[in-house]
């Protein structure tokens, strides 16, 4: 599982370079997220643009990643493929995370 | 389509082989004509059912094979998943109750969604344990394609 990170102002963007986050890679994903996000900005945006498939283990790994950040940092999700969005909606995790259709949407200044 | 198109796949019940197998089955079913609007549901439920076999049926024992038999009919898809691992608790299907989200960050569930998703996305589920074999049947119904889509999406 390859993750890359870029920090701008108060936001850290972490991009997932895999087309799936599933049971086979969930533990590795959680570990990599812990390492990459360590000491970063208060807001973390996870760019899922390249992810076409996620299962409940992958979803659990994203939830675990948010918990790892602690209560003073936040994890937002961007670039959700319709399939990935559906898994979040079915499990009601769409009520827990801020979901943005694209990375640009996630980085746009808040609307008035 | 007569008795339907068949697609069979068998693989060792490890996370790595399951990951490849699930992707292969999803691709194969779409190639055989599974309606695109149903493909997501099938992919999610199939992945959760196979992951359950890998994580629970073969937990603590040497993983043997998972066998997946798919039969695609014009208006429905049957999938039979068989394994020789540990039976489901009480020899019955778990309820599809989703894990509660809780009210605080550290209460958020990191699992417990598998059976909920399977129940939610299938039209029918059956389970039996016979001759040392777990057999989980999933059925997905979809409207007649000739009737046209019910609503635009």
Automatic annotation (TrEMBL), chain A:
Annotated Gene3D superfamilies: STAS domain
InterPro entries: Anti-sigma_ant, STAS_dom, STAS_dom_sf
GO molecular function: anti-sigma factor antagonist activity
Origin: domain of life: Bacteria
Record-annotated STAS domain positions: 21-110
Family in the record: Belongs to the anti-sigma-factor antagonist family.
PANTHER family registered for this protein in UniProt: ANTI-SIGMA FACTOR ANTAGONIST TM_1081-RELATED, ANTI-SIGMA FACTOR ANTAGONIST TM_1081-RELATED-RELATED
Protein name, UniProt field: Anti-sigma factor antagonist
From TrEMBL, chain B:
Stretches assigned to the Histidine kinase/HSP90-like ATPase domain: 22-139
Keywords: Kinase, Serine/threonine-protein kinase, Transferase
Entries under InterPro entries matching the protein: Anti-sigma-factor_SerPK, HATPase_C_sf, HATPase_dom
Organism: Ruegeria atlantica
Protein name: Serine-protein kinase RsbW
CDD domains attached to this UniProt entry: HATPase_RsbW-like (cd16936)
Superkingdom classification of source: Bacteria
Pfam families per UniProt: HATPase_c_2
Top-level EC class: transferase
Coiled coil regions in record: none
Enzyme Commission numbers on file: 2.7.11.1
Keyword field contains Chloroplast: no
Molecular function GO labels: protein serine/threonine kinase activity
């Amino acid at each position: 599982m390859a993750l890359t990170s870029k920090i701008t102002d108060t936001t850290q963007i972490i991009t997932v370079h895999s087309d799936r986050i599933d049971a086979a890679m969930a533990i590795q994903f959680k570990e990599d997220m812990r390492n990459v996000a360590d000491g970063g900005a208060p807001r973390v945006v996870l760019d899922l643009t390249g992810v076409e498939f996620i299962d409940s283990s992958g979803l659990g790994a994203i939830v675990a990643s948010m918990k790892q950040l602690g209560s003073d940092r936040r994890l937002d999700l961007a670039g959700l493929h319709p399939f990935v969005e559906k898994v979040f909606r079915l499990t009601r995790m769409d009520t827990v995370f801020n979901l943005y259709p694209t990375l640009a949407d996630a980085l746009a200044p808040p609307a008035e | 389509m007569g008795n339907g198109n068949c697609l069979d796949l068998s693989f060792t019940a490890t996370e790595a082989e399951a990951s490849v197998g699930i992707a292969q089955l999803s691709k194969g079913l779409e190639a055989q004509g599974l309606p695109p609007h149903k493909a997501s549901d099938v992919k999610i439920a199939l992945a959760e059912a196979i992951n359950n076999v890998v994580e629970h049926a073969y937990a603590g024992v040497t993983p043997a094979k998972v066998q997946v038999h798919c039969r695609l009919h014009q208006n429905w898809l049957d999938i039979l998943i068989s394994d020789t691992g540990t039976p489901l608790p009480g020899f019955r299907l778990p309820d599809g109750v989703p894990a509660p989200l809780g009210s605080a960050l550290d209460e958020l569930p990191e699992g417990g969604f598998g059976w909920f998703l399977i129940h939610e996305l299938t039209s029918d589920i059956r389970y039996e344990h016979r001759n040392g074999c777990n057999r989980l049947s999933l059925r997905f119904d979809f409207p007649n394609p000739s009737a046209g889509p019910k609503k635009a999406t």
